[in-house]
Amino acid sequence: MFNGLGMGLGNLSRISKAKTRSISAENFTGEKGKGGMATEGTGKGPSRDLGQGWKVSPSIMLQPQSTFTLAEIEGPGVIQHIWMTCFPAHWRSAIIRMYWDGEESPSVEVPYGDFYCNGWNERCNVNSLPVAVNPAGGMNSYWEMPFRKSAKITIENISNDEFPLYFQIDYSLTEIPEDVGYFHAFWNRSNPLKYKDVHTIVDGIEGHGHYVGTYIAWGVNNNGWWGEGEIKFYMDGDEEFPTICGTGTEDYFGGAWNFEQPKGEYGVYSTAFLGLPQVIKPDGLYRSQQRFGMYRWHIMDPIRFEKDLKVTIQALGWRSEGRYLPLQDDIASVAYWYQTEPHAALPKLPGKDELEII
């Protein structure tokens, strides 16, 4: 890995001329020697006896129906870690967007919770390599996000509520090699999925790159097992049939045999590259459906494409006489990938009611 761009264990000892910087509510610009200087902020009351330098501005207040710019960075450089936390009630109504090198169309446009593998507005710990969610709602991204000219990260509050957001964006200013791609992420939902249709995880990717991950928040609307469906990767001109076809939903996410362990229960798990960290059970009253959260990171096995890529997944259960049943579930997904720019503009997110968890 390029020294300064990514520091894995294999090159952690190498000395680099990259300059380490960090943006937070205590240093909105990330400038050297400018942290902790605030005299106004959400911590002004508790720090009134201590003054400047004593946690005066630990967070921001996101105003209703507004967008806040979390970071504007002049490159070249690479974002290496993002930490955030806010209340779970707002995880689907806060939208994260990222723009590289002054582009008008965002490369990342995903609801806050879904981006961090928490798509149901309920806390779920995740213990994976690029995404870690820790008690009680500390969201961490270690996706490498390089840029050559500039980086801009915004968060939009589409709700009618004001709420606090704590955040820190850690990055390095360093040269970026020519063969390094740009990070992208896209959210899509089928609610409900049409009968005998497939859920499209992403379509319309154009360029040269590699697909690195999938998160799905899956809400079932039928009794019985729901995960017989195949995931399919259509690449570089594939039309009716894909180049890569999976064998079943739980297989793709690294499990087997209905995720059933012990017998009669779903076995939750969270590993470096794949997991089923969230199972939300009915409560016998208003929570009538089962809901699941699953991720699969193609870090050791990226899906390479040279011109285009489309990814779909079937929702498939069982009906009488040993036949498959096409399901009509509530499926929301995030696709993660790297590619060369410019990228094709993907569909914009739907409105607040279409995003809502219901």
TrEMBL record:
InterPro entries according to UniProt: DUF2961
A Pfam family this chain is assigned to: DUF2961
Q: Where is this region: Disordered?
A: 23-50
Q: Where is the composition biased (Gly residues)?
A: 35-44
Q: Which protein are we looking at?
A: DUF2961 domain-containing protein
Protein source organism: Lederbergia citri
